[in-house]
Design goal:
Blueprint (H helix, E strand, L loop, with lengths): L16 H15 L12 H12 L12 H12 L21 H25 L4 H13 L1 H7 L5 H19 L8 H20 L3 H20 L6 H33 L12 H5 L5 H5 L10 E7 L8 E8 L14 E6 L7 E5 L20 E6 L6 E7 L7 E5 L13 E2 L18 E2 L12 E2 L1 E2 L12 E8 L5 H9 L12 H14 L13 H5 L5 E5 L6 E4 L3 H26 L7 H22 L15 H22 L3 H30 L6 H6 L2 H11 L1
Antiparallel strand pairs: 1-4, 1-12, 2-3, 3-7, 3-10, 4-5, 5-8, 6-7, 7-11, 9-12, 13-14
Helix pairs in contact: 1-4, 1-5, 2-3, 3-4, 4-5, 4-6, 4-7, 5-18, 6-19, 7-8, 7-9, 7-18, 8-9, 8-10, 9-10, 9-17, 16-18, 17-18, 19-21
Family: Belongs to the glycosyltransferase 39 family.
Main location: endoplasmic reticulum
Enzyme class: transferase
Length: 711
């Protein structure tokens, strides 16, 4: 029974030394002198700010993408002992001794290094030769732009890593189709879903690769459904497994990223105001301090501040002051000369309003308080001037299609007050819902100097239905205690004594943050290094990342022109060959065996499709674009290049002489790519001082001349 103890336990493993060697060389190329330069390089100034806020647990808002990428960079800082104390305000600023530069740049460098052996594995899993797989890895290894981006505290290399991991995992899963529901089958299927979710969690661009993998999986699943050898129950199990792993799991994982993000960032910070009052009140400090303990239900006589829920163009509060609209505007139109009502982006005593019952003169809260409910008609009295919020059929100063909003001044003329407002609690749970502080929501242009450059508030003549711009939220709230104006003014100037828990649920905070990320537009002003998608494919652009202050050594994001040009040609050749094969197959002429044809189609779907999915959408984007946006698409093009080379060598070169000549051409082409890598190396690593003439010669248009002269 115990015979197995009498023999040694032996474990055997197949080790691909090529993969090991590629991994080692990839690590050397990305990790060598990783702490150089010890200065802020280009977008490190952008990501570094968020890392410091993570270290201090301070909430921030970044509309450029989900939080996973920022959290991974912050993890490097945490493991390196970074305390967050560094001012990220200038490119080129020297890092202080407390900044763990190696730890902060380590994760992107590892991701870039591991993309090299991953390229080998993908081409191998597609069914192509060892030489083709090795060629893809070599191109990934010596592409200058990929090296530059991976050696800095940036996210493109991490995005490329998860893109490639998603494709590789799916190919591994697909190779297990003869062992369905085995542990390895489940492992690769699950890893595909997780990798797709991570790609989206790094940057929204990752959704392009996710949709690509999802599309390929849907086609394979459709073919599987048509397999009559499988029972209905078996087919149903296959479909459910794929749905759970590729649809449900990525969504759950994506939400988990936000859970960790919001758990870490629990303190109030500089970006709070873009969020709703309820969200701000859920953070430690800031608005939570102001609103702690204030009454929950708004009652007649309540003193409130009303914040615009849209937060655009800036967060602001309903405001009024003694000044009136000018009798005549600059364009010749007249006004009502009523007291101005604006939206003011700062805390101010003139932001306070009193909720009044139109049938009573009472301006303090009764005992017991009478809560205001959904659909009640109320008046809003400006706290400091005691005038009623009013709108009437007078054109607004800057938006003549809409009505002016004012505080009513009785001039004894035929302009009656229109100061009754019906309360609409838009997020109510029932029609008897009471108006609640922070939790309830009620349903710009800058004014000229006479309006103190504050934001215009207008009334719509006809209701267009619920819109974010018509929604206002009670932020600060207290029960008014005095009917006398002097005592009321003292109340309004005093801090609000505000004890009701307003902690939003995680799902509510996640929904709001996700919505803000998708709808709030950043300032996409022109940049000296911005470019268009057409500039990328021709490499007619570059970015100066860093310049040494004394030696003129510098780092540029500049691609290997041999790789970029040949990758573009390979993509075009793939499209032409595919069209040719399809036309021939339509005529029932099979140039390729069926297994070769399926391999060719799958390679195109994942590699050419990956390039198109990660490149073409940029033509539709209205944002500032840079060369590094093209790198994920380039990675897929690099995978396609040796696939096309093998196809040409095996199926288009008929004779041995043609194959020999083509092989020599491929070797010469790889040598040229290596030569350009060596020529551009000083701008990739930035460790070599350059004279002006040397720098001019390294422009890609002149690199061919250098290449020819050195040969």
């Amino acid at each position: 029974m115990l015979e197995f103890l009498q023999r040694p336990v032996v474990v055997t493993a197949d080790v691909n030394l090529s993969v090991v060697a590629l991994t080692v060389v990839g690590l050397l190329s990305r990790l060598w002198r990783l702490t150089y330069p010890r200065a802020v390089v280009f977008d490190e100034v952008y990501y570094g700010q968020y890392i410091s806020l993570y270290m201090k647990r301070v909430f921030f808002f970044d509309g450029s993408g989900p939080p996973l990428g920022h959290m991974l960079l912050a993890l490097g800082g945490y493991l390196g002992g970074f305390d967050g104390n560094f001012v990220w305000n200038r490119i080129g600023a020297e890092y202080s001794s407390n900044v763990p530069v190696r730890s902060l740049r380590l994760l992107p460098a590892l991701a870039g290094a591991l993309s090299v052996p991953m390229a080998y594995q993908i081409v191998w899993e597609l069914g192509f030769s060892h030489c083709a797989a090795l060629g893809a890895a070599l191109l990934m290894l010596i592409e200058n732009a990929l090296i530059t981006q991976a050696r800095l505290m940036l996210l493109e290399s991490v995005l490329i890593f998860f893109n490639l991991l998603a494709v590789l995992s799916y190919l591994k899963f697909n190779s297990q189709k003869h062992r369905p529901f085995s542990p390895s089958w489940w492992l690769w299927l699950t890893l595909t879903g997780v990798a797709c979710s991570c790609a989206v969690g790094i940057k929204y661009m990752g959704v392009f690769t996710y949709l690509l993998v999802l599309g390929v999986a849907a086609v394979h699943t459709w073919h599987l459904i048509g397999d009559r050898a499988l029972s209905n129950v078996r087919v149903l199990c296959h479909v459910l497994a794929r749905a759970v792993a590729l649809l449900v799991l990525p969504v759950v994982t994506y939400v988990l990223f936000f859970y960790v993000h919001l758990t870490l960032l629990y303190r109030s910070g500089p970006h709070d105001q873009i969020m709703s009052s309820a969200f701000q009140a859920s953070l430690e400090g800031g608005l939570a301090r102001i609103t702690q303990g204030q009454p929950l239900e708004v009652a007649y006589g309540s003193q409130v501040t009303l914040k615009s829920a849209s937060g655009r163009p800036v967060p602001c509060w309903l405001h009024s002051h003694q000044s009136t609209y000018p009798i005549m505007y600059d364009n010749g139109r007249g006004s009502s000369h009523q007291q101005q009502v604006t939206c003011y982006p700062f805390k101010d005593v003139n932001n306070w309003w009193i909720v009044k019952d139109p049938g009573r003169h009472q301006l303090e809260v009764s005992n017991p308080p009478r809560p205001v409910r959904h659909r009640d008609v109320v008046q809003l009295v400006h706290g400091m001037t005691t005038r009623l919020l009013n709108t009437h059929d007078v054109a607004a100063p800057l938006s003549p299609h809409a009505q002016e909003v004012s505080c009513y001044v009785d001039y004894n003329i035929s302009m009656p007050a229109q100061s009754l407002w019906r309360l609409d609690v838009v997020n109510r749970e029932s029609d008897a819902e009471t108006w609640k502080t922070i939790l309830s929501e009620l349903s710009g242009a800058h004014l000229p100097d006479w309006g103190f450059r504050q934001l215009e508030v207008v009334g719509e003549k006809l209701s267009r239905g619920l819109h974010e711009s018509t929604v206002w939220t009670v932020e600060e709230h207290r029960y008014g205690r005095s009917q006398e104006q002097k005592e009321r003014e003292l109340e309004l100037h005093s801090p609000a004594q505000t004890d009701v828990s307003r902690n939003l649920s995680f799902l509510a905070r996640f929904s709001e943050l996700q919505w803000r990320m998708l709808t709030v537009r950043s300032d996409d002003s022109e940049h000296k290094y911005s470019s268009t998608p057409l500039d990328w494919v021709t490499l007619d652009t570059s970015i100066a990342y860093w310049l040494h202050p004394r030696t003129s050594a510098q780092i540029h994001l500049l691609g290997n022109v041999v790789i970029w040009a040949s990758a573009g040609l390979a993509t075009a050749l793939y499209a032409l060959l595919t069209c040719w094969y399809l036309l021939r197959r339509r005529r029932n002429i099979r140039d390729l065996p069926e297994d070769c044809w399926l391999r060719w189609v799958l390679a195109g779907a994942l590699c050419a499709g990956g390039w198109a999915a990660n490149y073409l959408p940029f033509f539709l984007m209205e944002k500032t674009l840079f060369l590094y946006h093209y790198l994920p698409a380039l990675a897929f093009q690099i995978l396609l290049l040796p696939v096309v080379v093998q196809q040409v060598g095996e199926h288009l070169c008929r004779s041995e002489l043609q194959r020999s000549l083509f092989g020599a051409l491929v070797v010469a082409w790889y040598s040229a790519a290596c030569r350009v890598f060596a020529v551009l190396r000083p701008l990739t690593y930035g460790d070599t001082p350059l004279s002006p003439s040397e720098l001019q010669a390294l422009r890609w248009r002149d690199s061919w001349d250098i290449l020819i002269r050195k040969h």
